[in-house]
Amino acid sequence: MHFFLEMLAGYVPPLPAGEHHPLAKTVTSFNRWILLLLPAVGGLVSGWLVYTFAPEAEGHGTDAAIDAYHNKGGFIRGRVPFIKTFASVITLTTGGSGGREGPIAQIGAGFGSFIATRLKLSVRERRIMMAAGVGAGIGSIFRAPLAGALFAAEVLYRDPEFESEVIMPAGIASVIAYCVFCLVFGWGSLFDSPPFKFQNPLELGPYLVLASVVIGGALGGVVGRVFNHLMPTVVLQPGAFVVVGMAGFFTAVSNAPISTIIFVSEMTNSYHLLLPSLLVCSVCYLGARRWTLYHCQVKSKIDSAAHAGEFFMDVLQSFRVKDLLSSLQKVPVISQDMPFLKFKEYFSRTTQHYFPVVDAEGRLANIFSINDVRGVLFAPEIEHLVVMRDIGTSDIIAIKPSEDLNSVLKKFTTKNIDSLPVVSEEDHTRLIGMLNRRDVIAFYNRKVAEMKTTRT
User: Domain 310-451 carries which CATH code?
Assistant: First the structure.
């Protein structure tokens, strides 16, 4: 900015009151033509960098980080944070239209992913490192370490959901990044705001107008001035509406109300606006849940590929075989003394795939599938000698009504079996019925659909 905007164009953009110019200001005559062309040239150079070396660094960096967390195992190519850094620096310092949040989120996420990959960490650990990088970037550049950590855990979902395993690592990374940043650029909050105070409950009415009316801080200030004119004894500080209006708008577009409320306190170095911010951000969130700036946000953990396996197991572990008793197949049993020639007649009329074999007292003694029958079917010279106890296995993989469905699914996959016998809890030789794998999957899908319906 010192070189491009100040020295070439003679323009010194205003900084937030909490920030200080790191270099001595250079007085140069203002040149509107250079200022007109400079953002275009910067945009062309930035675009060439991105599309040539890292196309995934284009667009909104936060959305790319969210997508990497849910769908790419937290993996971001090592070159992305470097290209994003250079491209963002060129865009912002030449006067391009852009903000800090998106670039720093992807840069932090990229470095977190890069370090995790180089250390050969697991996919879960890489996701956490990537999210911690987001928290570190946001927390430092906005001088809001707590809000940065919460933002990294909250922005991943549209519903009021937190990625709990991210909060502590992101908090540690955010604190360290904040301290390093402030050692270089100075301590203090981002905004040097007056000592706002909330001391009149009637003021909540004008604040509530911010939730459907205001787009950002500028119109927030307008609303504040209007109500200061109409209700001077109630609205004493219209400047507070700028900060709360900004928070409400960002909540509406990001679906991250909790971290945004904390942002207000940390950026203004005051907790007096917590109550109106809580009201405005809550109403904004409830009114704008169907829309989001981050298209890669998923509704909840149920919809995240990052939790697909965990949630599958959690749902199945919470249900038992007895919950599917109505889905059991009551299949005919085969006597172990039945000659194969007689079974052959029965086999030609059935669509059954698995055949329980019982002894003379009706106890489960054996089980075989259609694959076991083929060896005898194509050996006619021995089929008149074979009885059904000779086919199949007595090493039966059976399940009981008290078993959870997750362990049942593991039994299905052990030997790639599609149907298992369900036996009595008291007598493991008494057959209740056959449970099919597809019925377990259908039950899981039905329960997930019910959960989603309940949540909405």
Answer: 3.10.580.10
The distance between the two most distant Cα atoms of the chain, rounded to a whole number of Å, is 108
**pTM here?**
0.68
How do the domains of the chain map onto residue ranges? 1-188, 192-299, 310-451
The CATH superfamily holding the domain 1-188 is: Clc chloride channel (1.10.3080.10)
SS3 letters across the chain: CHHHHHHHCCCCCCCCCCCCCCCCCCCCCCCHHHHHHHHHHHHHHHHHHHHHHCHHHCCCHHHHHHHHHHHCCCCCCCHHHHHHHHHHHHHHHCCCCCCCHHHHHHHHHHHHHHHHHHCCCCHHHHHHHHHHHHHHHHHHHCCCHHHHHHHHHHCCECCCCCCHHHHHHHHHHHHHHHHHHHHHHCCCCCCCCCCCCCCCHHHHHHHHHHHHHCCHHHHHHHHHHHHHHHCCCCCCCCHHHHHHHHHHHHHHHHCCHHHHHHHHHHHHCCCCCHHHHHHHHHHHHHHCCCCCCCCCCECCHHHCHHHHHHHHHHHHHCCEHHHHHHHCECCCCEECCCEHHHHHHHHCCCCCCEEEEECCCCCEEEEEEHHHHHHHHCCCCCCCCCEHHHCCECCCCCECCCCEHHHHHHHHHHCCCCEEEEECCCCCCCEEEEEEHHHHHHHHHHHHHHHHHHHC
Mean pLDDT of successive 10-residue segments in the chain (456 residues)? 84 74 71 88 90 82 87 87 88 83 87 92 91 92 91 89 90 94 83 77 83 77 87 85 88 89 83 87 88 85 74 74 88 88 86 89 88 76 81 86 88 85 90 90 82 60
